[in-house]
Amino acid sequence: MTEAATGDQRRASRRNVARAARISFARRSMTCIVCNLSATGAAVEASNPAEIPDSFRLVLEMEATERRCRVVWRRKGRIGVAFS
């Protein structure tokens, strides 16, 4: 099955992780879990994805890294982000 047929159009391979992180925006922050991660983006589980703006900073606490993100999809309890 081709990439187009599956709807999976990622440019980088992803790996499943379960890492604590923080979503930071407009002097606010909320906890989240990074479910999978690649060099170009991530899937993030959050308690209320509707409150998350289209762009924000994702702080990966274990790695002490911060990435600027933009939301590319929203589904029940999760968002997909591309790193800027």
For this entry, give a set of tags.
84 residues; mainly beta; 6-stranded antiparallel β-barrel; 5% helix; disordered N terminus
Q: Could you walk me through the main structural features you see in this protein, from its secondary elements to its overall organization?
A:
By secondary structure, the protein is mainly β. The chain has a domain at 24-51. It is 5% helix and 58% strand. It has one helix and six strands; from the N terminus they run H-E-E-E-E-E-E. The chain has one helix at residues 3-6, and strands spanning 15-25, 28-37, 41-45, 55-60, 65-75, 78-83. Strands 1-2-3-6-5-4 form a six-stranded antiparallel β-barrel. The protein is globular. The termini are far apart.
Task: Summarize the entry for a quick read.
The chain has 84 residues and is mainly β. The chain is built from one helix and six strands.
- Could you tell me the number of beta strands? 6
Quaternary structure type: single chain
Shape, principal axes of CA atoms:
globular
Radius of gyration of CA atoms, rounded to a whole number: 13 Å
Give the low-confidence spans: 1-7
Order of helices and strands: HEEEEEE
Into which percentage range does the β-strand content fall?
over 45%
Number of helices: 1
